[in-house]
Amino acid sequence: MDDTLIRMMQLGQKGYSCSQIILLLGLEMRGETNSGLVRAMAGLAYGCGSGHGTCGALTGGCCLLALYAGKGGDDERPSERLELMLQELSDWFADRIGSASGEMSCDSIVGEAGPAASRQRCGAIVGDTYTKVMEILATNEIDPMG
Predict the structure, then answer these.
(1) In whole angstroms, what is the distance from residue 87 CA to residue 94 CA?
(2) Containing structural domain, residue 134
């Protein structure tokens, strides 16, 4: 078991959701904290709370990519690669994790049992998504250490 997986399990046991875990791992890698941002990420969990929205692991992964490559202030410009990175993650997610029908909602991926019953399946999805985000950053020569 690697350090990232152990940390993911620790965060899950503390009650953080899929989208929060992905962002927390990225923030920790950068040596940063941002409780307001982490709190806001809870709104993406379990398909934006209903199970019918897009999986929080995917939306959390997209947010983590944007943390590294998006515009964050008036004097900043987003990376010209951001849209391509987001598309790569979304395509990978649809092919690798999306349901057989191509759906990417929580309900279609883990069933209607709800977030608590799907914890094991979700853990694997979060881990795979975080790994893919790190691969995309590396491919685009973006240092995840910030």
Answers:
(1) 10
(2) 15-69+78-139
What pTM, to 2 d.p., does this model score? 0.90
CA count, 13 A, side-chain hemisphere, 60: 36
Contact 115, 121 (CB under 8 A): no
Which residue has tokens 């985000």? Answer: 133
For residue 27, is it within any domain?
A: yes
Tens digit of pLDDT at every position of the chain (146 positions):
689 989 999 999 999 999 999 999 999 999 999 999 999 999 998 888 777 888 999 999 999 999 999 999 999 999 999 999 999 999 999 998 876 666 788 778 777 655 555 566 788 889 999 999 999 999 999 999 87
Q: Which helix (H) or strand (E) holds 62?
A: helix 56-69
Own/partner pairs for 114-121, CB < 8 Å, 24+ apart?
114/46, 114/51, 115/17, 115/45, 115/46, 115/51, 119/12
